[in-house]
Amino acid sequence: MGLVLYVSPVENIGVDSVKRDVAIMDTTWTVIKLTLWNDFVHVLDENLNHVDICPIIVACGLHVKSFYGTYLSTGYHTRVYVNPVNEKTTSLSTWYVQFRQIHVQHNLKYYAHNFFHV
């Protein structure tokens, strides 16, 4: 489970496969790559147009791969859920809203400080 930070464009692999890489983060600030294959490449499409929210993705039945670093990959038995409502996703969403407010406030203070102390 993680917040979707980045979604790559869909990429054709060979003749009959497509993939899309997604960067997700949890409350431990761990960012990991999740590769969505074939039927899963469009699961986030309708959630990407909302600039003010960060989609939450929950997946099970993933493969853990280690090729140039560790990443997750969908497979035949994978199940992917976008923005499910439960206690853990609500907690993650709340954490993100608080983090975003603190991060934005910190950046504004930083830029304001540098602007006035040039």
Outline the secondary-structure elements:
Blueprint: E1 2-7, E2 11-13, E3 17-25, E4 31-37, E5 56-60, E6 63-66, E7 70-73, E8 79-82, H1 87-116
Report on this structure.
It is a single chain. The chain is an alpha+beta fold and 118 residues long. The chain has one domain: OB fold (Dihydrolipoamide Acetyltransferase, E2P), CATH 2.40.50. 25% of the residues lie in helices and 36% in strands. It is built from one helix and eight strands. The relative contact order is 0.16. The C terminus is likely disordered. This is Replication protein A 70 kDa DNA-binding subunit B-like. It comes from Spinacia oleracea.
Number of DSSP E strands: 8
* CATH secondary-structure class: Mainly Beta
CATH topology: OB fold (Dihydrolipoamide Acetyltransferase, E2P)
Shape: globular
**How far apart lie the N and C ends?**
43 Å
Low-pLDDT stretches are 111-118
Give the percentage of residues in beta strands. Answer: 35-45%
Domain count: the total is 1
| Helical amount | 25-40%
Average pLDDT taken over every residue: 81
Q: What's the total helix number?
A: 1
Q: Indicate the structural class.
A: alpha+beta
